[in-house]
Amino acid sequence: MEIYTVTLIRGDGIGPEIAESVVEIFAAAEVPIRWEEAYAGLACLEQYGTPIPEATLESIRRNRVALKGPTTTPVGGGHRSINVAIRKAFELFANVRPARSIPGVQTRYNDIDLILVRENIEDTYAGVEYWQTPDVAESLRIISRPGSSAVIRYAFDLARRLGRRKVTCVHKANIQKVSDGLFLECFRQIAQEYPDIESDDILVDNACMQLVMRPERFDVMVLPNLFGDIVSDLCAGLIGGLGVAPGGNIGNGYAVFEAVHGSAPDIAGKGIANPTAFILSAVQMLHHLGLHGDAERIENALRYTLVSGIKTRDLGGNANTREFTKAIISNLPPCAQVRARNEPMTEPYRTPMLAPRSTEGEGWQTVGVDLFFHALQPPKDLPQQVGRLTLRTLSNRGVALEPNQRENRYLLNWYRARYLSEQPLHDEDIAEFLNRVTPCVAWTTLQRLYRTHDGIDLFSPILVE
Protein backbone atom coordinates (compact mmCIF):
# COMPACT_ATOMS: atom_id res chain seq x y z
CA MET A 1 0.00 0.00 0.00
CA GLU A 2 1.37 3.38 -1.04
CA ILE A 3 2.13 5.83 1.77
CA TYR A 4 1.52 9.53 1.04
CA THR A 5 3.71 12.16 2.67
CA VAL A 6 1.72 15.29 3.52
CA THR A 7 2.99 18.57 4.97
CA LEU A 8 1.25 19.33 8.27
CA ILE A 9 1.15 22.95 9.48
CA ARG A 10 -0.47 23.08 12.89
CA GLY A 11 -0.78 26.88 12.92
CA ASP A 12 -1.41 28.95 16.04
CA GLY A 13 -4.29 29.68 18.41
CA ILE A 14 -6.45 26.55 18.47
CA GLY A 15 -4.58 25.18 15.44
CA PRO A 16 -2.31 22.77 17.35
CA GLU A 17 -5.27 21.32 19.28
CA ILE A 18 -7.47 20.59 16.28
CA ALA A 19 -4.46 19.37 14.27
CA GLU A 20 -3.69 16.86 17.02
CA SER A 21 -7.28 15.61 16.76
CA VAL A 22 -6.78 14.85 13.05
CA VAL A 23 -3.41 13.18 13.68
CA GLU A 24 -4.97 10.87 16.30
CA ILE A 25 -7.98 10.00 14.12
CA PHE A 26 -5.77 9.24 11.11
CA ALA A 27 -3.52 7.04 13.23
CA ALA A 28 -6.48 5.12 14.64
CA ALA A 29 -7.96 4.70 11.17
CA GLU A 30 -4.59 3.55 9.80
CA VAL A 31 -4.78 6.04 6.96
CA PRO A 32 -1.73 5.66 4.67
CA ILE A 33 -0.44 9.16 5.45
CA ARG A 34 2.99 10.15 6.76
CA TRP A 35 3.06 13.63 8.27
CA GLU A 36 5.96 15.98 7.63
CA GLU A 37 5.74 18.77 10.19
CA ALA A 38 6.28 22.36 9.03
CA TYR A 39 5.60 25.64 10.72
CA ALA A 40 3.87 28.96 10.06
CA GLY A 41 2.29 31.57 12.27
CA LEU A 42 3.07 34.05 15.02
CA ALA A 43 5.79 31.92 16.62
CA CYS A 44 7.66 31.81 13.29
CA LEU A 45 7.39 35.57 13.00
CA GLU A 46 9.08 35.95 16.37
CA GLN A 47 11.74 33.29 15.70
CA TYR A 48 12.52 33.74 12.00
CA GLY A 49 11.26 37.25 11.25
CA THR A 50 8.69 35.85 8.81
CA PRO A 51 5.39 34.05 9.43
CA ILE A 52 6.22 31.53 6.67
CA PRO A 53 9.80 30.21 6.77
CA GLU A 54 11.33 29.04 3.50
CA ALA A 55 11.58 25.53 4.97
CA THR A 56 7.77 25.39 5.14
CA LEU A 57 7.39 26.44 1.52
CA GLU A 58 10.02 23.89 0.51
CA SER A 59 8.11 21.14 2.34
CA ILE A 60 4.95 21.97 0.38
CA ARG A 61 6.93 22.02 -2.89
CA ARG A 62 8.34 18.61 -2.11
CA ASN A 63 5.12 16.92 -0.98
CA ARG A 64 2.66 18.85 -3.17
CA VAL A 65 -0.13 18.37 -0.60
CA ALA A 66 -0.48 20.13 2.75
CA LEU A 67 -2.96 20.26 5.61
CA LYS A 68 -2.83 23.63 7.33
CA GLY A 69 -4.26 24.72 10.66
CA PRO A 70 -5.60 28.25 11.26
CA THR A 71 -3.13 31.11 11.66
CA THR A 72 -3.71 34.59 13.02
CA THR A 73 -3.87 37.53 10.59
CA PRO A 74 -3.58 41.02 12.12
CA VAL A 75 -6.38 43.44 11.18
CA GLY A 76 -5.41 46.78 9.63
CA GLY A 77 -1.64 46.23 9.92
CA GLY A 78 1.10 43.71 10.64
CA HIS A 79 2.04 40.84 8.34
CA ARG A 80 -0.09 39.83 5.39
CA SER A 81 -2.39 36.82 5.55
CA ILE A 82 -0.42 33.56 5.62
CA ASN A 83 -3.27 31.88 3.77
CA VAL A 84 -3.10 34.40 0.94
CA ALA A 85 0.70 34.17 0.81
CA ILE A 86 0.64 30.38 0.44
CA ARG A 87 -2.06 30.55 -2.24
CA LYS A 88 0.03 33.00 -4.25
CA ALA A 89 3.30 31.09 -3.73
CA PHE A 90 1.83 27.93 -5.29
CA GLU A 91 -0.70 29.49 -7.67
CA LEU A 92 -3.58 27.81 -5.83
CA PHE A 93 -6.17 29.38 -8.09
CA ALA A 94 -9.27 27.49 -6.89
CA ASN A 95 -10.67 27.63 -3.36
CA VAL A 96 -13.15 24.76 -3.00
CA ARG A 97 -15.69 25.08 -0.19
CA PRO A 98 -18.28 22.27 0.07
CA ALA A 99 -21.43 23.13 2.04
CA ARG A 100 -23.30 19.97 3.03
CA SER A 101 -25.84 19.59 5.82
CA ILE A 102 -24.56 17.51 8.73
CA PRO A 103 -27.02 15.34 10.69
CA GLY A 104 -26.85 16.27 14.33
CA VAL A 105 -26.00 19.92 13.63
CA GLN A 106 -29.23 21.86 13.97
CA THR A 107 -29.78 24.65 11.43
CA ARG A 108 -32.71 26.21 9.59
CA TYR A 109 -32.00 23.86 6.67
CA ASN A 110 -31.48 20.12 6.52
CA ASP A 111 -30.82 19.40 2.85
CA ILE A 112 -27.96 21.68 1.78
CA ASP A 113 -25.53 20.09 -0.68
CA LEU A 114 -23.61 22.55 -2.80
CA ILE A 115 -20.00 23.36 -3.68
CA LEU A 116 -18.58 26.85 -3.94
CA VAL A 117 -15.49 27.34 -6.13
CA ARG A 118 -13.84 30.70 -5.53
CA GLU A 119 -11.08 32.29 -7.59
CA ASN A 120 -8.23 32.43 -5.13
CA ILE A 121 -5.43 34.75 -6.28
CA GLU A 122 -6.70 37.81 -8.13
CA ASP A 123 -9.41 40.42 -7.53
CA THR A 124 -8.80 42.81 -4.62
CA TYR A 125 -6.81 40.03 -2.93
CA ALA A 126 -3.94 40.78 -5.28
CA GLY A 127 -3.23 43.41 -2.64
CA VAL A 128 -2.41 46.22 -5.08
CA GLU A 129 -3.37 49.30 -3.07
CA TYR A 130 -2.24 52.90 -2.97
CA TRP A 131 -2.87 56.18 -1.21
CA GLN A 132 -3.84 58.63 -3.96
CA THR A 133 -4.42 61.64 -1.73
CA PRO A 134 -4.62 62.15 2.06
CA ASP A 135 -8.33 61.31 1.77
CA VAL A 136 -8.44 58.66 -0.96
CA ALA A 137 -7.16 55.08 -0.90
CA GLU A 138 -7.32 52.96 -4.04
CA SER A 139 -7.45 49.17 -4.31
CA LEU A 140 -7.14 47.65 -7.77
CA ARG A 141 -9.57 44.86 -8.62
CA ILE A 142 -7.58 42.64 -10.96
CA ILE A 143 -9.56 40.16 -13.07
CA SER A 144 -7.64 38.37 -15.82
CA ARG A 145 -8.66 36.06 -18.63
CA PRO A 146 -6.07 33.35 -17.70
CA GLY A 147 -6.98 33.48 -14.00
CA SER A 148 -10.72 33.44 -14.61
CA SER A 149 -10.49 30.65 -17.18
CA ALA A 150 -8.42 28.45 -14.86
CA VAL A 151 -10.88 28.54 -11.94
CA ILE A 152 -13.95 28.29 -14.18
CA ARG A 153 -12.55 25.27 -16.00
CA TYR A 154 -11.76 23.66 -12.66
CA ALA A 155 -15.35 24.21 -11.53
CA PHE A 156 -16.68 22.41 -14.61
CA ASP A 157 -14.11 19.61 -14.29
CA LEU A 158 -15.08 19.17 -10.64
CA ALA A 159 -18.79 19.10 -11.50
CA ARG A 160 -18.22 16.46 -14.17
CA ARG A 161 -16.01 14.32 -11.91
CA LEU A 162 -18.56 14.38 -9.08
CA GLY A 163 -21.61 13.92 -11.31
CA ARG A 164 -23.04 17.34 -10.49
CA ARG A 165 -25.82 18.74 -12.65
CA LYS A 166 -25.15 22.49 -12.91
CA VAL A 167 -22.51 25.21 -12.59
CA THR A 168 -23.62 28.76 -11.78
CA CYS A 169 -21.47 31.84 -12.34
CA VAL A 170 -21.97 34.51 -9.67
CA HIS A 171 -20.94 38.05 -10.67
CA LYS A 172 -21.80 41.76 -10.74
CA ALA A 173 -21.36 42.38 -14.46
CA ASN A 174 -24.29 44.79 -14.60
CA ILE A 175 -22.19 47.33 -12.65
CA GLN A 176 -18.58 46.19 -13.02
CA LYS A 177 -19.00 45.76 -16.73
CA VAL A 178 -15.33 45.35 -17.63
CA SER A 179 -13.94 43.22 -14.76
CA ASP A 180 -16.94 41.04 -13.95
CA GLY A 181 -17.88 41.26 -17.61
CA LEU A 182 -14.61 39.49 -18.44
CA PHE A 183 -15.24 36.81 -15.79
CA LEU A 184 -18.73 36.18 -17.21
CA GLU A 185 -17.41 36.12 -20.78
CA CYS A 186 -14.86 33.44 -19.83
CA PHE A 187 -17.61 31.44 -18.11
CA ARG A 188 -19.89 31.46 -21.14
CA GLN A 189 -17.06 30.44 -23.46
CA ILE A 190 -15.91 27.53 -21.29
CA ALA A 191 -19.48 26.36 -20.58
CA GLN A 192 -19.83 25.53 -24.27
CA GLU A 193 -17.12 22.87 -23.85
CA TYR A 194 -19.26 21.03 -21.24
CA PRO A 195 -22.62 20.39 -22.96
CA ASP A 196 -23.40 17.64 -20.43
CA ILE A 197 -23.51 20.17 -17.59
CA GLU A 198 -26.18 22.83 -17.22
CA SER A 199 -24.86 26.37 -16.78
CA ASP A 200 -26.35 29.70 -15.79
CA ASP A 201 -25.35 32.95 -14.12
CA ILE A 202 -26.74 35.22 -11.43
CA LEU A 203 -25.93 38.59 -9.87
CA VAL A 204 -24.18 38.25 -6.52
CA ASP A 205 -26.79 40.20 -4.56
CA ASN A 206 -29.59 38.03 -5.95
CA ALA A 207 -27.49 34.92 -5.30
CA CYS A 208 -27.26 35.81 -1.60
CA MET A 209 -31.02 36.18 -1.39
CA GLN A 210 -31.68 32.97 -3.32
CA LEU A 211 -29.24 31.04 -1.11
CA VAL A 212 -31.38 31.96 1.88
CA MET A 213 -34.77 31.47 0.20
CA ARG A 214 -34.11 28.61 -2.26
CA PRO A 215 -30.65 27.09 -1.69
CA GLU A 216 -31.67 24.01 -3.70
CA ARG A 217 -31.45 26.23 -6.80
CA PHE A 218 -27.63 25.90 -6.66
CA ASP A 219 -25.28 22.98 -7.19
CA VAL A 220 -21.75 24.17 -8.05
CA MET A 221 -21.08 27.92 -7.86
CA VAL A 222 -18.02 29.70 -9.29
CA LEU A 223 -17.19 33.25 -8.24
CA PRO A 224 -14.47 35.92 -8.35
CA ASN A 225 -12.34 36.13 -5.22
CA LEU A 226 -14.04 38.81 -3.11
CA PHE A 227 -17.58 37.64 -3.81
CA GLY A 228 -16.46 34.06 -3.21
CA ASP A 229 -15.03 34.97 0.18
CA ILE A 230 -18.30 36.54 1.30
CA VAL A 231 -20.72 34.03 -0.22
CA SER A 232 -18.71 31.04 1.05
CA ASP A 233 -19.25 32.24 4.63
CA LEU A 234 -22.94 32.63 3.88
CA CYS A 235 -22.99 29.02 2.68
CA ALA A 236 -21.19 27.96 5.85
CA GLY A 237 -23.96 29.64 7.81
CA LEU A 238 -26.52 27.45 6.06
CA ILE A 239 -24.92 24.29 7.47
CA GLY A 240 -24.05 25.46 10.97
CA GLY A 241 -21.21 27.95 10.70
CA LEU A 242 -17.49 28.07 10.06
CA GLY A 243 -16.91 25.41 12.71
CA VAL A 244 -18.23 22.75 10.32
CA ALA A 245 -17.04 24.21 6.98
CA PRO A 246 -14.05 22.59 5.22
CA GLY A 247 -11.93 24.10 2.49
CA GLY A 248 -9.27 23.20 -0.04
CA ASN A 249 -6.99 25.27 -2.28
CA ILE A 250 -6.17 23.68 -5.63
CA GLY A 251 -3.53 24.64 -8.17
CA ASN A 252 -1.58 22.97 -10.94
CA GLY A 253 0.12 20.14 -9.12
CA TYR A 254 -0.33 21.53 -5.59
CA ALA A 255 -3.12 21.48 -3.01
CA VAL A 256 -3.40 22.93 0.51
CA PHE A 257 -6.38 22.05 2.69
CA GLU A 258 -7.45 24.09 5.69
CA ALA A 259 -10.32 24.87 8.02
CA VAL A 260 -11.70 28.23 6.98
CA HIS A 261 -12.36 29.55 10.49
CA GLY A 262 -9.92 31.69 12.45
CA SER A 263 -7.37 30.80 15.08
CA ALA A 264 -9.70 31.72 17.99
CA PRO A 265 -6.91 32.77 20.38
CA ASP A 266 -9.50 33.52 23.09
CA ILE A 267 -10.15 29.78 23.61
CA ALA A 268 -6.69 28.45 22.70
CA GLY A 269 -5.29 26.02 25.26
CA LYS A 270 -8.64 25.47 26.99
CA GLY A 271 -9.29 22.13 25.30
CA ILE A 272 -12.76 23.10 24.03
CA ALA A 273 -12.04 23.81 20.35
CA ASN A 274 -14.25 22.15 17.75
CA PRO A 275 -12.09 20.15 15.27
CA THR A 276 -14.98 19.32 12.90
CA ALA A 277 -14.05 21.75 10.11
CA PHE A 278 -10.42 20.65 10.21
CA ILE A 279 -11.42 16.96 10.16
CA LEU A 280 -13.66 17.59 7.15
CA SER A 281 -10.83 19.49 5.43
CA ALA A 282 -8.61 16.44 6.02
CA VAL A 283 -11.38 14.27 4.55
CA GLN A 284 -11.47 16.56 1.51
CA MET A 285 -7.70 16.09 1.24
CA LEU A 286 -8.10 12.28 1.26
CA HIS A 287 -10.58 12.49 -1.61
CA HIS A 288 -8.06 14.64 -3.49
CA LEU A 289 -5.47 11.88 -3.01
CA GLY A 290 -7.90 9.25 -4.22
CA LEU A 291 -8.27 7.68 -0.75
CA HIS A 292 -12.06 7.75 -0.97
CA GLY A 293 -12.58 4.77 1.28
CA ASP A 294 -10.54 6.25 4.11
CA ALA A 295 -12.27 9.60 3.62
CA GLU A 296 -15.75 8.08 3.82
CA ARG A 297 -14.81 6.01 6.84
CA ILE A 298 -13.70 9.03 8.84
CA GLU A 299 -16.59 11.21 7.71
CA ASN A 300 -19.11 8.50 8.60
CA ALA A 301 -17.58 8.22 12.08
CA LEU A 302 -17.77 11.99 12.49
CA ARG A 303 -21.40 12.15 11.39
CA TYR A 304 -22.38 9.21 13.61
CA THR A 305 -20.72 10.93 16.57
CA LEU A 306 -22.68 14.14 15.98
CA VAL A 307 -25.98 12.29 15.47
CA SER A 308 -25.44 10.43 18.71
CA GLY A 309 -25.35 13.75 20.54
CA ILE A 310 -21.63 14.02 21.26
CA LYS A 311 -20.76 17.58 20.31
CA THR A 312 -18.47 20.40 21.34
CA ARG A 313 -19.93 23.41 23.10
CA ASP A 314 -20.24 25.61 20.02
CA LEU A 315 -22.56 22.97 18.49
CA GLY A 316 -24.75 22.74 21.57
CA GLY A 317 -22.97 19.86 23.36
CA ASN A 318 -20.65 19.63 26.32
CA ALA A 319 -17.79 17.48 24.99
CA ASN A 320 -14.27 18.88 25.01
CA THR A 321 -11.85 18.40 22.13
CA ARG A 322 -10.33 15.19 23.53
CA GLU A 323 -13.71 13.60 24.29
CA PHE A 324 -15.03 14.46 20.85
CA THR A 325 -11.93 13.01 19.17
CA LYS A 326 -12.11 9.78 21.17
CA ALA A 327 -15.79 9.39 20.29
CA ILE A 328 -15.01 9.66 16.56
CA ILE A 329 -12.27 7.05 16.90
CA SER A 330 -14.62 4.67 18.72
CA ASN A 331 -17.18 5.07 15.91
CA LEU A 332 -14.81 4.26 13.02
CA PRO A 333 -16.31 1.52 10.80
CA PRO A 334 -14.17 -1.60 10.17
CA CYS A 335 -11.33 -0.82 7.80
CA ALA A 336 -12.03 -3.67 5.37
CA GLN A 337 -15.48 -2.26 4.54
CA VAL A 338 -14.15 0.88 2.90
CA ARG A 339 -10.50 0.46 1.91
CA ALA A 340 -11.55 -1.06 -1.44
CA ARG A 341 -12.95 2.37 -2.42
CA ASN A 342 -9.46 3.84 -2.56
CA GLU A 343 -8.26 4.89 -5.99
CA PRO A 344 -4.75 6.28 -5.49
CA MET A 345 -4.17 9.51 -7.38
CA THR A 346 -2.09 8.99 -10.51
CA GLU A 347 -1.52 12.61 -11.53
CA PRO A 348 -2.20 15.91 -9.74
CA TYR A 349 -4.85 18.15 -11.25
CA ARG A 350 -3.60 20.38 -14.04
CA THR A 351 -5.36 22.80 -16.33
CA PRO A 352 -3.85 24.64 -19.29
CA MET A 353 -3.08 28.27 -18.51
CA LEU A 354 -3.74 30.79 -21.25
CA ALA A 355 -0.64 32.51 -22.59
CA PRO A 356 -0.45 36.33 -22.27
CA ARG A 357 -1.23 38.25 -25.44
CA SER A 358 0.05 41.48 -26.94
CA THR A 359 -2.30 44.43 -27.36
CA GLU A 360 -0.86 44.89 -30.85
CA GLY A 361 -1.74 41.33 -31.81
CA GLU A 362 -5.27 41.87 -30.52
CA GLY A 363 -5.76 45.01 -32.59
CA TRP A 364 -5.91 47.39 -29.64
CA GLN A 365 -5.34 51.10 -30.30
CA THR A 366 -4.60 53.76 -27.70
CA VAL A 367 -7.24 56.46 -28.21
CA GLY A 368 -7.08 58.38 -24.95
CA VAL A 369 -5.99 58.62 -21.36
CA ASP A 370 -7.56 58.97 -17.95
CA LEU A 371 -5.49 61.34 -15.83
CA PHE A 372 -6.03 61.06 -12.07
CA PHE A 373 -4.83 63.99 -9.98
CA HIS A 374 -4.92 65.54 -6.52
CA ALA A 375 -6.69 68.90 -6.18
CA LEU A 376 -8.60 70.65 -3.40
CA GLN A 377 -10.99 72.31 -5.85
CA PRO A 378 -12.04 71.57 -9.43
CA PRO A 379 -9.15 72.93 -11.54
CA LYS A 380 -9.79 75.95 -13.71
CA ASP A 381 -6.61 75.85 -15.76
CA LEU A 382 -6.68 72.25 -17.03
CA PRO A 383 -5.81 72.39 -20.74
CA GLN A 384 -8.72 71.61 -23.03
CA GLN A 385 -6.52 70.46 -25.89
CA VAL A 386 -3.08 68.84 -25.87
CA GLY A 387 -1.92 67.75 -29.30
CA ARG A 388 -4.42 65.18 -30.54
CA LEU A 389 -6.05 64.82 -27.12
CA THR A 390 -9.20 66.72 -26.18
CA LEU A 391 -10.60 66.99 -22.65
CA ARG A 392 -14.00 65.29 -22.77
CA THR A 393 -14.98 64.82 -19.12
CA LEU A 394 -13.91 65.86 -15.64
CA SER A 395 -15.22 63.53 -12.94
CA ASN A 396 -15.12 62.97 -9.20
CA ARG A 397 -15.90 59.57 -7.64
CA GLY A 398 -16.87 58.31 -11.11
CA VAL A 399 -19.51 61.01 -11.70
CA ALA A 400 -19.07 63.57 -14.46
CA LEU A 401 -19.00 67.17 -13.27
CA GLU A 402 -20.89 69.72 -15.30
CA PRO A 403 -19.48 73.25 -15.01
CA ASN A 404 -22.56 74.59 -13.23
CA GLN A 405 -22.49 71.73 -10.66
CA ARG A 406 -18.93 72.00 -9.46
CA GLU A 407 -19.61 74.53 -6.73
CA ASN A 408 -22.56 72.68 -5.19
CA ARG A 409 -21.29 69.18 -4.71
CA TYR A 410 -19.43 67.29 -1.99
CA LEU A 411 -16.18 66.54 -3.81
CA LEU A 412 -13.17 64.45 -2.94
CA ASN A 413 -9.69 65.82 -3.48
CA TRP A 414 -9.08 63.28 -6.26
CA TYR A 415 -10.27 63.90 -9.82
CA ARG A 416 -10.20 62.14 -13.15
CA ALA A 417 -9.81 63.95 -16.44
CA ARG A 418 -10.64 61.93 -19.55
CA TYR A 419 -8.87 62.96 -22.74
CA LEU A 420 -9.79 61.30 -26.04
CA SER A 421 -8.43 61.44 -29.57
CA GLU A 422 -10.11 60.91 -32.90
CA GLN A 423 -6.98 59.12 -34.15
CA PRO A 424 -4.85 56.37 -32.57
CA LEU A 425 -2.09 57.71 -30.34
CA HIS A 426 1.61 56.92 -30.18
CA ASP A 427 4.00 56.98 -27.23
CA GLU A 428 5.22 60.40 -28.37
CA ASP A 429 1.68 61.77 -28.03
CA ILE A 430 1.46 60.48 -24.46
CA ALA A 431 4.86 61.96 -23.59
CA GLU A 432 3.84 65.34 -25.02
CA PHE A 433 0.61 65.21 -23.02
CA LEU A 434 2.44 64.53 -19.73
CA ASN A 435 4.94 67.33 -20.36
CA ARG A 436 2.07 69.74 -20.89
CA VAL A 437 -0.16 68.81 -17.94
CA THR A 438 2.52 68.16 -15.29
CA PRO A 439 2.94 71.89 -14.45
CA CYS A 440 -0.85 72.25 -14.19
CA VAL A 441 -1.91 69.42 -11.84
CA ALA A 442 -0.46 67.05 -9.24
CA TRP A 443 -1.24 63.90 -11.13
CA THR A 444 -1.06 60.47 -9.46
CA THR A 445 -1.93 57.96 -12.18
CA LEU A 446 -2.15 57.87 -15.96
CA GLN A 447 -4.26 55.13 -17.53
CA ARG A 448 -4.29 54.41 -21.25
CA LEU A 449 -7.69 53.97 -22.90
CA TYR A 450 -8.00 51.41 -25.68
CA ARG A 451 -10.31 50.82 -28.62
CA THR A 452 -10.35 47.86 -31.01
CA HIS A 453 -9.98 48.11 -34.77
CA ASP A 454 -13.73 47.39 -34.88
CA GLY A 455 -14.46 50.57 -32.94
CA ILE A 456 -15.30 48.92 -29.60
CA ASP A 457 -14.27 50.94 -26.55
CA LEU A 458 -12.40 48.87 -23.96
CA PHE A 459 -13.01 51.28 -21.12
CA SER A 460 -16.03 52.07 -18.98
CA PRO A 461 -18.00 55.27 -19.53
CA ILE A 462 -17.97 57.88 -16.80
CA LEU A 463 -21.33 58.12 -15.08
CA VAL A 464 -23.33 61.23 -15.90
CA GLU A 465 -26.20 62.31 -13.66
Could you explain how this protein is built, in words?
The protein is of the alpha/beta class and about 475 residues long. The chain folds into 3 domains: about 200 residues, 3-Layer(aba) Sandwich (Isopropylmalate Dehydrogenase), CATH 3.40.718.10; about 130 residues, Isopropylmalate Dehydrogenase (3-Layer(aba) Sandwich), CATH 3.40.718.10; about 90 residues, Alpha-Beta Plaits, CATH 3.30.70.1570. About 30% of the residues lie in helices and about 20% in strands. It contains 12 helices and 18 strands. It has a 10-stranded mixed beta sheet, with helices on both faces. Strands 13, 14, 15, 16, 17 and 18 form a 6-stranded antiparallel beta sheet that branches. The chain has a two-stranded antiparallel ribbon with strand order 6-7. The chain is elongated. The termini are far apart. The mean pLDDT is about 90.
Structure keywords:
about 475 residues, alpha/beta, Isopropylmalate Dehydrogenase, Alpha-Beta Plaits, 3 domains, ten-stranded mixed beta sheet, six-stranded antiparallel beta sheet, 12 helices, about 30% helix, about 20% strand, elongated
CATH architecture classification name of the largest domain: 3-Layer(aba) Sandwich
CATH topology-level fold name of the largest domain: Isopropylmalate Dehydrogenase
Distance between the termini: 69 Å
Mean pLDDT: 92
Given helix and strand content, the structural type is alpha/beta
User: CATH homologous superfamily of the largest domain - what is it?
Assistant: Isopropylmalate Dehydrogenase
Main beta-sheet strand count, sense and barrel state: 10 strands, mixed
Q: How many domains is the backbone divided into?
A: 3
Helicity range of the residues? 25-40%
Order of strands across the main sheet: 2-1-3-12-11-4-5-10-8-9
Report the count of strand segments.
18
The rounded Rg comes to 26 Å
CATH class of the largest domain: Alpha Beta
Secondary-structure element order, N to C: EHEHHEHEEEEHEHEHEHEEHHHEEEEEHE
* Beta-strand percentage range: 15-25%
Which parts are unreliable, with pLDDT below 50 for 5 consecutive residues or more? none
Number of helices: 12
Shape: elongated
